[in-house]
Amino acid sequence: MAAAICARLLLQRSTQGSLFSSRAVPAFSSPFLSRGHRLGPSDDEMYQRTTVSVMQKEPDSGVMINSYSSRGFNIDGNKVFGPCAVLPPAILQWNVGSYKDITEESVSLFHMLEPRIEILVLGTGARLERINPSVLALLKKKGIAVEVQDTPNACATFNFLTSERRIAAAGLIPPPISTALDVTKE
Questions:
Q1: How far apart are CA 102 and CA 171, in angstroms?
Q2: Which residues sit opposite 168 in a β-bridge?
């Protein structure tokens, strides 16, 4: 009897539209969360930040890239100026000026490591740039997967791979100074 009353009440509510509805209602009504909204320079600068806060680092979880700027990187509290190579046990200056300088010779340190790295993340600066196909072919021949991204995404990818305990390395070129938020006086 109680089940019949409960079913009748449920059916009654569903026909009134309070419990079930054929009309989709968005869960959030904020204009910033709508599908067509694109962030621009006038939006909250929260979306422009470049730092990572690690609440508690697990022992032996590897190095983490905490922040980057046009001058370099902060990696586990170590300030590295200019391009750098982040290897499983070390952080080194990387002698490249731009993505054009990423050659078979400049990536040779990544395939000489023991234990062999699984994946190399290359950060090419502010934009994703095309790497010479011969460099990618060499690394593939050596059994190393390569992920080429702009530097902000490469830092995030490297941190993710490291947190997953993958044997990863990164070659990072700092992005140039951003002028996206500069205000001009007229």
A1: 9
A2: 119
- Determine the Cα–Cα distance for residues 60 and 12; give it in Å rounded to an integer: 59
Instruction: Judge contact between 110 and 119, C-beta under 8 A.
Output: no
Query: Hunting for tokens 């290897």 — which residue is that?
Result: 87
Nearest of 62, 34, 25 to residue 166 by alpha carbon: 62
Q: Which two tokens stand for residue 11?
A: 């059916």
pTM: 0.65
Pairing mode, strands 84-87 and 168-172: antiparallel
For the chain, what is the mean pLDDT?
Answer: 76
Q: Is the peptide bond before 115 cis (omega within 30 degrees of 0)?
A: yes
> Which amino acid type is present at position 164?
E
* H helix and E strand count, the chain: 4, 8
Distance of CA 142 to the CA centre of its chain: 25
Q: Token pair of 167, please?
A: 């044997």
In the chain, the amino acid numbered 38 is R
pLDDT interval class at 81 (50, 70, 90): very high
